[in-house]
Amino acid sequence: MNNYVRALRGERDWSQADLAQKLDVSRQTINAIETGKYDPSLPLAFKIARLFGMPIETIFVPGEE
Q: Which InterPro entries match (predicted)?
C-alpha cells in the first residue's frame, strides 16, 4: 500500500514525533508507515484520516503487491 502521510505531515510542518504524539503512537510507527514497511490498522488509518481531514482512500492507495 502506498500513502501520502509524509507529504501531508510536511505540508503542516510537523515532525514524525509531532504526528506520533497527535496519534498516540511511537515515532518509529510513523516512520514505518511513511516508508511502507508497515500498513496501519484500520482504526489507526481512520485516526490519521480524521487528523488530516481527508478520506482514508485519499491518504492510502493500493500499491503493487
A: Cro/C1-type_HTH, Lambda_DNA-bd_dom_sf
